[in-house]
């Protein structure tokens, strides 16, 4: 599994099929992660609610993975749109990577990409 940190100006996703976007509280949509991808129908979005317990979020994320898998799609990319550092409480990134990596519907060669916000 690949874990990458990028900026909002980097291109990340090559295909919407099997892509899950995790939106941290206060994060902006990672538009540049989808540069060149026209059809986003295969993209699933799972927002992290402010103050949400990690256990509850991970259960919701697992349900979304299972829903995608039920349609015959393996999750190949998880893009995490990060909130501005220090402004909000979010899910621990190491926990998130471990949860994704251990999920049965995540591709062994899949990627978790953390898109850091720009400060402009």
Name the average pLDDT.
78
The 3D shape can be described as globular
Per DSSP E runs of 2 or more residues, the count of β-strands stands at 5
Structural class designation = alpha/beta
Poorly predicted spans: 6-15
Q: Under CATH, the topology is which?
A: Leucine Aminopeptidase, subunit E, domain 1
Strand order of the largest sheet: 1-5-4-2-3
Enumerate how many helices there are, as a single number.
Answer: 2
Please explain how this structure is put together.
The protein is α/β, with parallel strands linked by helices. It has a single domain (2-116), classed as Leucine Aminopeptidase, subunit E, domain 1 (3-Layer(aba) Sandwich). Helix content is 22%, strand content 28%. It has a five-stranded parallel beta sheet with strand order 1-5-4-2-3, covered by helices on one side. Helix 2 (93-102) links the parallel strand 4 (75-81) and strand 5. The longest helix is centred in the middle third of the chain and has 17 residues, at 54-70.
Which features characterize this protein?
120 residues, alpha/beta, Leucine Aminopeptidase, subunit E, domain 1
Short description:
The protein is α/β, with parallel strands linked by helices.
